[in-house]
Amino acid sequence: MDYLYSIVDRKTLALRGLVAVIFGIVALVATGFILDVLVYAFGFFAILTGILTAGVGMSSEKSELPRWLLVTMGVLSILVGIFALVTPLIVAIALTIFIAAWFLITGITDLGLAVFHKKTHHRILLALSGIIGVAVAIILVVAPVSGAYTLVMVLGIYAVAAGFISIFLGLSLGKEKVEIGAQTSS
User: Fold this and answer.
1) pTM (whole model) above 0.70
2) Does the N terminus or the C terminus of the chain have fewer Cβ atoms within 10 A?
3) Which helix (H) or strand (E) covers residue 6, if one does?
């Protein structure tokens, strides 16, 4: 197994935490603004990648994919990006519905594992996780607009909490450096 290491000094850790706390506070105070920023960022990203994909399709003589497919993918990406910029609330609701579908699928899967896998350890916790997933899915589908805002608020709470932890770690390290290891299999 290989280990990849990156060295993070205390100032970087504290600064990253400060940025996260600021983002989290803005997400909690100006939830609609952050939701719009996320949707607009997606729209611009989709347009940019669409332009690049279509450009590769039009200019590339050798590609693993047919040129017409690259151009079509690029044009569709551009159209999705424009749609996101023109109708940000619809895109936010659609994203919320997709997240709700994910919660529903994982919740049902967890419930199924808890009920049908007799040898699974901690079946009660697995069942509880499934019930929570299904409940969150129902809440998001019943009220997708408020669900989108709630998702941003949860993101804000997470950013504030993770940010304070990062600041604390950065300030408590003194002059040490932190090694953050990522394990990869070879």
Assistant:
1) no
2) C
3) strand 2-9
> Taking the domains of the chain in order of start, what are their residue ranges?
2-35+88-184
| CA atoms lying within 13 Å on the CB side of residue 145 | 4
93-110 residue pLDDT tens: 998 899 899 999 999 999
Phi/psi region, residue 85 (left: phi>0; alpha: psi -120 to 50; beta: rest), is alpha
Whole-number Cα distances in Å, 182 to 1, 25, 118:
11, 30, 34
| Residue 108: both structure tokens together | 């049902």
Mean pLDDT of the chain: 85
pLDDT in tens, 51-64: 999 998 888 777 67
The backbone torsions φ and ψ at residue 153, rounded to the nearest 5 degrees and listed phi first, read: -65, -40
Half-sphere exposure of 82 (CA within 13 A, CB side): 8
pLDDT at residue 181, rounded to an integer: 54
Look at 54 and 1; give whichever has higher pLDDT.
Answer: 54
CB atoms within 10 A of CB 23: 16
CA angle 55, 61, 67 (to 5 degrees): 55
Helix (H) or strand (E) holding 183: strand 177-184
